[in-house]
Every structure is written in structure tokens, then in C-alpha cells.
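sanity check this record:
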Amino acid sequence: MKWIIPFTLLMVFETIGNFVSGLFGSIQNLLLFPLALIIYAIANYFWLISLKNGSGLARGTVYFGVSVVILSTLIGFAFYEEAISLLKLVGIGLGITSLVLLSDEFKP
């Protein structure tokens, strides 16, 4: 379980990177472009540390993917006035279900 802290830091930096990228897309400030790249590079560093500490590629990728979808949807809704449809909510629910099914503690 040593991978959880670097994975959490990965998600923090990925979320910040997504937010900065959204700002770049909306206000076109060229300084935000290299800032977003630096933040994504830091996030990738923590991804590599997470893999090294046992997250596993398959499980870690699914956790990462679902987490990014959930966090990006929330950021889009809260800061960029993007709509959240019923279909998106169903997709998020299915993603969360996949996290439960992939967890080590789940035993049917």
C-alpha cells in the first residue's frame, strides 16, 4: 500500500494540470501552456513512483482513468459551466463500480 500516497499526489497534480489547461483553453494566456506542462510532468513523476511502489499497471491505470473522469467532470461543472447529464452520472457510477470490483478487498 506504499503506492497510495504517490498516487494521491498524482491525482492532485493531474487535477491542477487539468484546471490550468482549462484556463489556457478559455483565456488563451500563453504562460499557462508551459505551466500546465510542468504540472503534468510532476504528476507523471508521481505516477512512476506509484507504479514502482506496487500500484500495478492495470489497476493503477483504471484507478487513474476513473479518478480523472470524475475530477474533470466536477471541475468542468464547477468552474467552466459544463453540463452534467444523466448519462454522464451513469458513466461515473459505472466507473466507481469498476474501482470497487478491482480493489484488493473485494471478494464476491
